Amino acid sequence: MKRFKNAMALEVINPSALKLLDLPAFPVVEDFVVVPMLGSVPSWRMPLPHLIGAEFYSRELGLLISCRWWEGIFYINRIRGYFSAQDAPNGTIDEPHFDFQPAWQIFIFEQEEYVYVLQADNSQEDDFSTWFRVSSQNYSMAWLKAVAEAELHSG
Questions:
Q1: Partners of 131 in the beta sheet?
Q2: With the C-alpha atoms ordered 109, 123, 102, 3, is the resulting torsion angle positive or negative?
Q3: Are 132 and 28 in contact (CB under 8 A)?
Q4: Is-contact 14 123, C-beta < 8 A?
């Protein structure tokens, strides 16, 4: 499935540049869904499957973000039984959540009533081709549903 990209990329050369963005211009995704990515990481030595990443979808726009090997956030055996909405990847505009792999980098932060998400196509780019916002409530609920789904598939 082809990933959604905005018509224009946003240049973010460092986290402080987030404050310069026109946040009201970010499109609102009303039908936001988090889909867990399950897999196996042998070094974890815990029951399978492991929650190794996530994909963000919109029924209207399709695949928004795909973050494979985001295991620092998603080690399901650590989150089972006590994951809450506050554990979802998030930050503030002053201290955003930031993560990267060779194939992507992502910023996530909450400002007022929205969570803002920006993803670049690799870890070396300053141009973020996918960017949108989700209501804070929808973002939290989507994460809780994703973790519940992942737990159904775990041993």
A1: 118
A2: positive
A3: yes
A4: no
pLDDT in tens, 72-122: 555 444 444 556 666 778 899 999 998 888 888 899 999 999 999 999 988
3: which residues sit within 8 A by CB, 6+ positions away? 62, 63, 64, 65, 66, 130
Of 56, 68, 2, nearest to 29 by C-alpha is: 56
Task: Check: CB of residue 57 under 8 Å from CB of residue 134.
Answer: no
DSSP assignment string, 73-122: HH-HHHHTTT--GGGSS--BSSS-EEEEETTEEEEEEEETTEEEEEEESS
CB 50 within 8 A of CB 40: yes
Both tokens of residue 114?
A: 């929205």
Q: Enumerate helices (H) and strands (E) in the chain, giving the number of each.
A: 3, 8
